[in-house]
TrEMBL record:
<dbReference type="GO" id="GO:0006508">
    <property type="term" value="P:proteolysis"/>
</dbReference>
<keyword id="KW-1133">Transmembrane helix</keyword>
<comment type="similarity">
    <text>Belongs to the peptidase M28 family.</text>
</comment>
<dbReference type="InterPro" id="IPR048024">
    <property type="entry name" value="Fxna-like_M28_dom"/>
</dbReference>
<dbReference type="Pfam" id="PF04389">
    <property type="entry name" value="Peptidase_M28"/>
</dbReference>
<keyword id="KW-0472">Membrane</keyword>
<keyword id="KW-0645">Protease</keyword>
<keyword id="KW-0482">Metalloprotease</keyword>
<dbReference type="GO" id="GO:0008235">
    <property type="term" value="F:metalloexopeptidase activity"/>
</dbReference>
<keyword id="KW-0812">Transmembrane</keyword>
<feature type="domain" description="Peptidase M28">
    <location>
        <begin position="141"/>
        <end position="182"/>
    </location>
</feature>
<dbReference type="GO" id="GO:0046872">
    <property type="term" value="F:metal ion binding"/>
</dbReference>
<dbReference type="InterPro" id="IPR007484">
    <property type="entry name" value="Peptidase_M28"/>
</dbReference>
<keyword id="KW-0378">Hydrolase</keyword>
<keyword id="KW-0325">Glycoprotein</keyword>
<feature type="domain" description="Peptidase M28">
    <location>
        <begin position="197"/>
        <end position="317"/>
    </location>
</feature>
<keyword id="KW-0862">Zinc</keyword>
Amino acid sequence: MPPRAPPRRRPAPAAGGPGFGDSARVLLALAALYAAMSLLAYRVIHMRHVAPLGADAPRGNFSEGRVLQHLRRLAVDIPGRQEGSPGLEAAAQYIKGELQGLAARAGPEYRIEVEETLVSGSFSMMFLRHRVTLGYRNHKNIVMRVSSNVSEDDDPSLLVNGHFDSPLGSPGAADCGSCVGICKSCVDLFLCMLFNQGSHGFIKTHRWNRTIRAFINIEASGSGGTDLVCQSGPGSWPSRVYAQTAKYPMANSVAQDMFGIIPGDTDYRIFAEDITNIPGLDIIFVLGGYFYHTSYDTLENLLPGSIQARGENLFNLVKAFTNPMLLKENEISNKAAKDGIEDVGAVFFDYLTWFMVFYSRDISLILHSLPIAIFLLVPLFLKFPNITLMSWFVTLLGFMRGKTEMWNVH
């Protein structure tokens, strides 16, 4: 018998075969998609999509360049703005002089009042689960109120707040010289403005405190980037106004849930929680936190475009919050809260500063329970395949309707 031929080996598929090519194209497409998403997120977070306007921009537009001129005076020319330092007094006099210059140039249709006050006092608060008592003496506040020449002294007003002192050893460019420059530039464009060392002293003692119906507190825990609404309330009214009017919305209701565990605080709690319950917003720079409260908080480390985005947002918010119809809506909401009708806030988030998604807590209970309902119903649907999808859909609607009625009763 002739010897049997050895079995022929099947040749291995070539590295460039059709299967390999399809996989490579899929991986390449995924890599390109992730790279594009990362680049887009980087540009948005660093405000690269916002073009800052120069100091020569038209006077009717908010200009980052003009803010930087004030900021250079506060953070470069003045050596330091720490408590008890000569620089802090120099900063106060510079701010007061700028505001008085605005008042002198205002037209006859405006009434602009500028006041300098010294406040002293003390208060207690819970901070990181510990009770802390703070005392202060002879802190200086610079307050400016802008109204029409036909306004009454007790007409409702909006408070825009920012502090002008800086931490020990820090020039305080972002925290919070930028806040002062932005507030001053917003006044240039058209509101009670508070440049403070002691917000508690203002809200407890100043004669204008009883007119405030809403407030916006601007802060910085970094050198720019996302200008996050980290706290809002009481109720959903302030965040709803922000969602409707901000040009570059940057807000997330989760931030408020997490703020309590952060070892820091702002003047928001003075206005909205501990002393009064005025509705308002707390807006902070969050990127570049490694510069926060250090000697590197300088003009050069500010992220371009961040001040422009914050200023344009603030300008729109000031116009919205001073709308008489919205202030009336706020008063109705406050009256309902006093009558026991609770406004528990809302769920909201922005999409890459392009738009905001905003819905009530009642709607969120339905939307966030829907995946659980689907998870529970799918095994039953697989177990009884003869039952139509429509019948399961009707069952699901009945289930959700029952939950809604239960929540309403609750």
